[in-house]
Design brief:
3-stranded antiparallel beta sheet, 189 residues, 8 helices, mainly alpha
């Protein structure tokens, strides 16, 4: 963040001379120059407020030019749900990659995982984060053909039990044979 800040702020500018208009201009330039999303910009603005808050607390500047009310607003982007033809096109592309004999084993397996994920998302209506959080032991009951979907937001916290679509049973049984605790394992951090 500091490196990006230095890229758009002139070196000769003194912190005490920064005005609210300067911070807005700098944030606009950062958004354009670094192609940052509105959510990232809001986080960056919060960091800038912290920096100037510290400068005020340490008596390096008289007042902070960064006001809470000037923070950029993150806009919700509404994307329409995928159509059957879009899912079908993705499925066919992943299937072609999985069956391509010239692909490496790793690149053949990844499309299979993605194809399975696409199938689960299409038949369940769940979000991808919910699918990645599914655990065999706690969330999936193939005998009752039901799974527990947990809210991806910690603050909302809810969970609901949903039936598993019949067409997913064979694929889920195959995935269970892979072992592991997750239905769709992710890379360890």
């Amino acid at each position: 963040f500091v490196a990006q800040l230095k890229a758009v702020v002139p070196e000769e500018m003194v912190a005490d001379e920064v005005r609210p208009a300067d911070t807005r201009l700098m944030m606009d330039r950062m958004r354009v120059d670094f192609r940052l999303s509105a959510t990232t910009m809001k986080k960056r603005y919060g960091r800038l407020r912290m920096v100037f808050g510290w400068l005020v607390d340490e008596d390096h500047v008289r007042r902070s030019p960064v006001k809470k009310g000037d923070a950029p607003q993150a806009e919700n982007v509404h994307r329409p749900p995928w159509t059957t033809s879009q899912y079908q096109a993705l499925w066919e592309a992943l299937d072609a990659e999985a069956t391509n004999e010239h692909s490496s084993e790793a690149s053949r397996r990844n499309p299979v995982d993605l194809r399975d994920l696409v199938e689960v998302l299409w038949h369940s209506g769940m979000r991808s984060i919910q699918a990645y959080r599914l655990r065999w032991r706690e969330d999936v009951d193939l005998d009752r053909m039901a799974w527990v979907l947990r809210s991806p937001r910690r603050t909302k916290g809810g969970e609901k039990v949903q039936p598993i679509h019949d067409s997913l049973k064979a694929m889920l049984e195959r995935r269970k044979l892979f072992g592991g605790e997750s239905v769709f394992p992710t890379k360890e951090k």
